[in-house]
Design goal:
The chain has helices at residues 2-19, 21-28, and strands at 54-63, 71-84, 90-102, 107-121, 128-142, 153-154, 157-158, 172-187, 191-200, 205-206, 216-217, 220-230, 235-246, 249-261, 273-282, 286-295, 298-307, 320-329. It is mainly β. It has one domain: Porin. β8 and β9 (191-200) form a beta hairpin. α1 (2-19) crosses α2. 37% of the residues are buried.
Length: 345
């Protein structure tokens, strides 16, 4: 019976994905609670802005954890400075792969994003404006052979040898579109500020498993802000905000993080050891406690979504867990500004 319930859950999710693929994709595409740990899914202009020569980030999110198959989202990205110019300006290059999976792997959607950025310094400290352009490609596939319907249900379970009669549904769909972003960055010795806007897939493209030309995936527009500062020799704090708009719907997330330095005094740049505690709130959706650890160029984070809405979810369990990993590679001669010690940017 437990297995049958899981199959029914897969079938229900399958109907939603097949009937409303663009809408489902809009809702599920990068919507991380730890949005600060997935910079290239927020703004392509964040390419190369971390202060490091190279940065690798990865984020794993599993939601709807329970009796049914969870919805899984995984990303990995690499970005850095390709060419430094004499006036603190530089060119940056970065790429990201994002993979989504549901229905025990029957539904798979993969994004590949490549971005190029240019940072124009406005002063001798490198503070300035970044602009970026990029291309994104997506391929979405549904394994129709694994989908089951109620006509296949018997006293012994599902007989998947019987036809589903959905021969008019294709197995995959793909599109290619463009991304762009602008970013203002300010770095003092003890504080930092980011202000950015971006557009993902701002060229509308067709996306339908049923060859329906009216089904198009809409652009997503994002605005974000981040501020961080040193409080004393041990403590630092940062605050983040993110607002995404797509197809008339919007999501707003707010967050704060406190970093506690240990093992060295006065934020010794060669011995960075810090415990991070944070709290994020996706308005009218979820509250997310966060805990993380920083060790030199490595940063890890773990978070758990707590339902903060009165909406009924039925048999679906709202539980969602995220794990993030960041590594920054610095030149031996680079001197890190301590205001950004607990910021992935």
């Amino acid at each position: 019976m437990r297995k049958t319930n899981k199959q029914i859950g897969i079938f229900i999710i399958g109907l939603v994905l097949l009937g409303y693929l663009p809408v489902a994709s809009n809702a599920q595409e990068p919507n991380f609670s730890q949005f600060i740990a997935s910079p290239l899914s927020i703004n392509p202009a964040l390419v190369g802005t971390s202060g490091a020569d190279w940065r690798v980030t990865s984020n794993i999110r599993r939601q709807w954890i329970g009796n049914i198959s969870p919805y899984s989202t995984q990303t990995i990205s690499l970005d850095g400075k390709m060419k430094n110019l004499g006036d603190q300006s530089y060119f940056g290059l970065g790429g990201m792969v994002l993979a989504e999976k549901a229905m025990d792997g029957l539904y798979k959607s993969n994004f590949i994003n490549i971005n190029a950025s240019f940072h124009q310094a406005l002063d001798d400290d490198g503070n300035g404006i970044s602009a970026a352009l990029g291309v994104v490609n997506n391929n979405t596939r549904v394994d129709l052979g694994g989908l089951t319907f109620d006509q296949q249900l018997s006293s012994t379970g599902f007989n998947q040898a019987l036809p589903t009669m959905e021969t008019n549904i294709g197995k995959s769909t793909a599109f290619t579109s463009a991304v762009a972003g602008l970013l203002y960055t300010y770095d003092a010795e003890y504080s930092f500020l980011n202000l950015g806007i971006s557009g993902y897939r701002f060229i509308k493209t067709k996306r339908s498993l049923m060859a329906d030309p009216s089904k198009k995936i809409s652009p997503r527009y994002t605005a974000h802000a981040d501020f961080g500062s040193i409080i004393n020799e041990t403590l630092s704090a940062s605050f983040s905000a993110l607002h995404m708009i797509q197809d008339g719907m919007s999501i707003t997330s707010l967050g704060a993080m406190l970093g506690i330095q240990h093992g060295a005094r006065a934020f010794d740049e060669n011995k960075v050891k810090m415990v991070n505690f944070g709290l994020y709130y996706r308005i009218n959706d979820a509250i997310t406690p966060y805990v993380g650890y920083v060790f030199n160029g490595f940063q890890f984070g773990l978070s758990y979504d707590v339902n903060a809405t009165s909406s009924k979810t039925g048999a679906v369990n709202y539980k969602s867990v995220e794990l993030s990993f960041i590594y920054k590679k610095y030149l031996p001669t680079y001197r890190r500004k301590i205001g950004r010690y607990n910021s992935p940017y």
